[in-house]
Structures are given as structure tokens and as C-alpha cells.
Amino acid sequence: MATSEPVRVSGLLSFTASSRPEMRGTEIEEGCADSPTTAVTNPEQYIKHPLQNRWALWYFKNDKSKSWTENLRLISKFDTVEDFWALYNHIQQPSKLGFGCDYSLFKDGIKPMWEDDRNKLGGRWLMTLGKQQRHNDLDRYWMETLLCLIGESFDEASEDVCGAVVNVRPKGDKISIWTGNCQNRDAIMTIGQQYKERLSIPGKTLIGYQSHDDTSSKSGSTTKNMYSV
Length: 229
Ligand code: MGP
Fold this sequence. Notes:
By secondary structure, the protein is α+β, with helices and mostly antiparallel strands. The chain is built from six helices and eight strands, in the order H-E-E-H-E-E-H-H-E-E-H-E-H-E. The termini are far apart. Residues 68, 113-115, 167, 169 line the site of 7-methyl-guanosine-5'-triphosphate.
């Protein structure tokens, strides 16, 4: 399939909506209608829109007879806007998943686990949702999170992004953005502030950033925040 040069996509939501495969037909350019053999197809009709990065979507299903790593499955990879929407439209929304399930979207080559070399010095911006928010906000927040990632929405700080995770849990669902180095304060703060704005989280509602080191070694139910916005 032909692709054009990668571009940073601003306003990806409206851009992608018009790029959804089912909304695009083959048209013969004006003036060619009388001579089908010389018809020129507009490249916009068949060229897919490349993303800055290739992404991998993972699914976690909590089967207690297996280890955490064995429960993690790669669903699919994509690197164009159209292939993202094809996948997104094909799978269940997070609110329809069973308790204990996760989706993770990570840059190709980074596994969605603390142990990966590109994650092990990093951490995550964590949003913990109230139970009522599964109905009201979860799917909308997750889609916006996906668009922030594939649209590279955090300027230069997008390079620090490794991926994002949604955890569906009885005690309250969680959405997090994982970054590669918890010492990169400037990039982390940029991501946190812009992410909060994109989700229209009120200023007085704080979200926290925690290192994977702290999360994986915690003994109680909470992990201390390294940063908050
Ligand atoms: P969780 O799925 O991230 O959160 O971690 P949950 O279910 O809300 O639990 P809580 O502890 O945050 O309240 C649950 C458990 O899954 C962890 O305690 C680990 O045992 C395992 N786990 C989670 N992650 C993200 C990893 C990981 O990256 N690597 C490994 N080895 N285990 C993990």
C-alpha cells in the first residue's frame, strides 16, 4: 500500500474522522468521466496517512492459572491513521471488558511492562477513575489518550512517551501514560499538563506521576507521587 511522507498530525480527531476507510470512495477526477481508460485517481483516495511511529496494541486477560507475562497478548500493530481506525472500530471499548483486563498501546519495540529496557527507569501519569466514570468517561478518555499518543500531541516531550494502559478494575478503572525516564522532569510536566487539558480535567483535580520502581516495590495500596499537575 502506498504511503506519503510522515507528518505530525495536528487536529488529528477531525483529520482522522474524514480519513476513516469506510467514508472514502473511488472517484474519477473531473474531466475524465468520458474516457475511463485515462481516468486519474486522486492519490488522496488510496494513500494511507502515515503516523510518526508504529504502535502495538496489547491485551491482558486475567487468568489466575497463568503468570502475569503469559496473560499479556499482542493484538496488532499499525502505522497509519486508517489502520488505527480499522483496529479501533473492530475491538471492544474498555467499558465492555471484564474486570482484570487491560489494553496497552506502546511504541513498537517496547513491551508494556516495567521490565522493558525503555520502561525500567520510567514511570506513569496515573488517572484513577471513580466507579461512575466507567459509564460516563472511561471510553472517551481512552480514545483521547490513544489520539494524544498516535498524534504525538506533547510536542518534543512526545519522544519520552512509551505508551498508555487502561486497567479495568472493580475498585475503579485506571488510565496511565508511561514515559521512559522519571528524571526528565520538563518532559513529564509538559505531558501531564497537556494531557490534563486534552481530557478537560478540572485544574483542582490533581493527577500524579509515579516511578515504576516505586510502583513495583510498593508494599501498601498507594505509591508516592514524584510529580503532580
Ligand atoms: P496492575 O494490573 O498494574 O494493577 O498490577 P491492579 O490490578 O489495579 O493492582 P494494584 O496492585 O495496582 O492495586 C497488578 C499486579 O500485576 C502487580 O502487582 C504485578 O504483580 C503485576 N504486574 C503489573 N504490571 C504492570 C507488571 C509489569 O509490568 N511486570 C510484571 N512482572 N508484573 C506486573
